[in-house]
Specification:
single chain, about 220 residues, alpha+beta, Arc Repressor Mutant, subunit A, Muramoyl-pentapeptide Carboxypeptidase, domain 2, 2 domains, 3-stranded antiparallel β-sheet, 9 helices, Transcriptional regulator, WH-like_DNA-bd_sf, WH_DNA-bd_sf
């Protein structure tokens, strides 16, 4: 009588293991804050050269950064790694849900008009900051480039496009989608902000909050 062997499990693609290791590496930095390459290699149970390759890839991708720190504030400086803002963005956040709760309570306590006042106050603060970064003496194209760069840094994935007649701000992501879907005044406040900062007429043609693929703003 012969005994059949259990089927061999399917092979894991060679590229899967490195990606899984990178994910574990990011999770370690999220949990511990900063770690040396040696600490990471020990915790991941991989060689230091392999760890350094993963660290190099993640640094190139903008997910982690290296810096020099003194252990416990004293001793010899050591090279450590930490998550960047983009690296933090890999992990789930509940900011939108928290924002929704806060706005709902403000609305319940002070009425619907209070939400508009909140967005207007936020607009005024952002406009003051952006006016300093985008002075009016700069050409419009330069100010648009700086503005879209700033928008991308806070999660809008913004680019400039032209159809030969007009310039457009295209936002390919809405970092506050849940809030924008509930409170349409957020999109209106965004439109007012761009008009104020650019000193130009700005027309909204598409919005992600209304189910369209992008937010599209025509300048002029």
């Amino acid at each position: 009588m012969t005994t059949s062997l259990p089927p061999r499990p399917p092979a894991v693609p060679l590229s899967a293991a490195p990606e899984r290791t990178k994910t574990r590496l990011l999770e370690l930095l999220k949990r511990h804050g900063t770690l040396t390459a040696q600490d990471i290699a020990l915790k991941l149970e991989v060689s230091i050269p392999a760890t350094r390759r993963h660290l190099s890839d993640l640094c190139d991708g903008g997910l982690i950064e290296s810096r020099t720190e003194r252990p416990s504030g004293r001793g010899r400086p050591q090279h450590v790694y930490a998550l960047t803002e983009n690296g933090e963005g890999v992990f789930p956040k509940t900011y939108s849900a928290l924002c929704m709760d806060i706005l709902r309570h403000i609305e319940a306590l002070h009425g619907e008009g209070s939400i508009i006042k909140v967005f207007e106050a936020r607009n005024a603060e952002l406009a003051e900051r952006l006016h300093q970064e985008l002075p009016a003496h700069l050409p419009l194209e330069v100010r648009l480039e700086l503005l879209t760069r700033r928008l991308s840094e806070i999660g809008f994935d913004a680019v400039i496009e032209s159809d030969g007649h007009h310039l457009y701000i295209i936002q390919r992501n809405c970092p506050s989608l849940m809030v924008a879907q509930k409170y349409k005044s957020l999109c209106h406040a965004e439109l007012q902000l761009y008009t104020l900062v650019l000193g130009q007429a700005v027309h909204r043609e598409k919005t992600i909050a209304c189910g369209q693929g992008v937010c599209r703003y025509r300048i002029g």
